[in-house]
Amino acid sequence: MSETLKVDKRFCGPPSSANGGYIAGLLSTHLVPSDDEAVEVTLKAPIPFDVNLDIHEINGEVELRHVDLTVATARVVEFDLRAPTAPVDAAVLARSEISPLLVPATNHPAANCFVCGPAREVDDGMRLFPQRVSGTSNYQVSWTVSEHGDEFIWAALDCPSSLGMYLAEDPFFGPIVLGRITGQVRGVPLVGDVCDVVSWREGVDGRKMFGAAALFAADGECLAVARSTWIRVPQIS
After folding, report:
1. What is the CATH number of the domain that holds 72?
2. Taking CA atoms, which of 10, 23, 110, 215 is between 20 and 30 Å from 16?
3. 3-class SS of residue 181
4. Same domain, 139 and 216
5. Greater confidence, 76 or 60?
6. In whole angstroms, what is the distance from residue 157 CA to residue 230 CA?
7. Whole-angstrom distance, CA of residue 134 vs CA of residue 116
8. Does residue 84 fall inside a structural domain?
9. What value does the mean pLDDT take over residues 18-37?
């Protein structure tokens, strides 16, 4: 089975390619994991805009191709990630340090990113700028859902999971790109719902940083979790 996908440049991550979490969310809808499984999406090449991308389902796995190049794959895997903490009160978070994505000295590598780009307008991008939770190594950001779909949940779990790169006690400064994201969606919020994304770092191995994120509903229910692999690169194009 195959179908065609075309990505609008509005959904960029790096300037010239699509946001990885958004793409992962689109691919995830082609697979049906059980309660103790998740969808693992591996990004193999930059994903271009406004061209036909072919989705192929082969032996239970999904491939996204641009002409003859496989740019992403998705499969079902076992999964045991649990969110380590619930969100803190917004008033407490407001007293913590400003998001590093909004500090000029950090030189945001993708200022127009659909998810975390400060150059995006309020009604155009998600504008998720996580702040560090005081006294912890976690980050948190509030998200008012404006568009419905798994792809926006995955996008919300994508960029925030990279904030561990800014931990001053053990920095992992970029630019970095998403290499893999493994997610499990348990519930889909409605447009207008106010959720919180909590993210944390799980480790570093050479050029790779491992992060994770969880999406919480206003009542504290965990709606989704994801683990991500970020790769340091010379530059983002």
Report:
1. 3.10.129.10
2. 215
3. strand
4. yes
5. 76
6. 13
7. 21
8. no
9. 96
Q: Are 101 and 108 in contact (CB under 8 A)?
A: yes
Q: Hey, what amino acid is at 216?
A: F
Q: Is the pLDDT of residue 106 over 80?
A: no
Identify whether residues 43 and 141 lie together within a single domain.
Answer: no
In a domain, 83, yes or no: no
Last residue of a domain, one of 50, 78, 106: 78
- Measured CA to CA, the distance from residue 37 to residue 198 in angstroms comes to 21
DSSP state of 12: B
Mean pLDDT of the chain: 91
pTM score above 0.85: yes
24 lies in which domain range?
2-78
Tokens 């509005």 belong to residue? 10
Question: For residue 28, what are its two tokens?
Answer: 């995830």
Between 103-112, 136-145, 150-159, the lowest mean confidence (pLDDT) is in: 103-112
**Residue 67 banded pLDDT, cuts 50, 70, 90:** very high
Single out the residue of 210, 206, 156 nearest to residue 179, CA to CA: 210
Do 70 and 117 have their domain in common? no
Asked if 101 and 179 sit in the same domain, the reply is yes
DSSP letter (8 states) at residue 57: E
- Region 53-59: mean pLDDT is 93
Calculate mean pLDDT across residues 17-45.
96
Q: Residue 135 — left, alpha, or beta (φ > 0 → left; ψ -120 to 50 → alpha)?
A: left
Question: Across the strands, what pairs with 143?
Answer: 195
The reply to whether 108 and 207 lie within a common domain is: yes
